[in-house]
# Entry
Amino acid sequence: MQQIELSAYAKINWSLLITGQRDDGYHTLMSLMEQVDLADEITVQKAAFDQIACPPLPEDASNLALAAWLALKKKLNLKDCLRIIIKKNIPLASGLAGGSSDAAAVLRGANDLLDLGQTDEQLAELGLSLGADLPFCLAGGAAVVSGIGERVEKVSDFPQMPLLLINPGQAVSTAAAYRGRMGAFCDRTVAYSKIASLLIARRRLDFAQIAMVWQNDLQKSSIALCPAIAHIKLDLAKAGIPSLMSGSGATVIAPPLDEENLSKLQEKYPFVRTVKTR
Ligand code: ATP
# Structure
């Protein structure tokens, strides 16, 4: 086998509760994450030297996908080289973990292509050193994620659910959103019970009930960085539609809309997409 093709799926946060901050600066969280059928398309090929093509991003190791391969190569002291080609369909810096998902797909792809025999746990451990969303992206599906992202408890009984993603075409820095967060942390017991209610609502495909319990503790600070998030939420609220920002934004998630409301949003925002959970 000379090459492998992979889909790197976007994730949403049905809830993102920040429960504390460790001495090393990392925030601890509790989040219900789920992949949706919006994906970057990745080809990983054996090559004479390491390279990446992922327009419009620079062709260097600032790309998390190449950084992930180089970290795996270093860890295992490999001589192999890879060409990584990525077609981005997930908006950049949008709270949908596009970069982390690309990196996770490349770790899996390299492991299979080169027959490296790395276990899921070994890949997740390496992944965590590259980004907090990596362990979830490697696990896939739906999961309750906690710690700094290293604890991934998979949820296997969610029926597929359609939802709407709206992105204003503006990047939000995850680091800046965390820096701008203010106020008390969410108590861990409270966080548990909120996530438990969310699990029930999500299982029932009950968007109204989901919207009663979902919460994103980065929403305020991300709105301060990117007011367009609030504009999207306001447009939806005016039509009586609940919404929540995913991750550090700026993507907003909402229930699927009728044609009229959908085309109004499509006229105003560059990325409006009805997707399904996987
Ligand atoms: P998260 O939800 O994990 O915080 P995000 O969806 O907000 O992530 P990404 O799309 O992963 O954000 O990108 C964040 C930054 O990472 C981008 O601004 C970009 O410069 C950089 N980056 C590095 N590699 C990639 C990649 N393969 N795809 C997208 N962005 C990448």
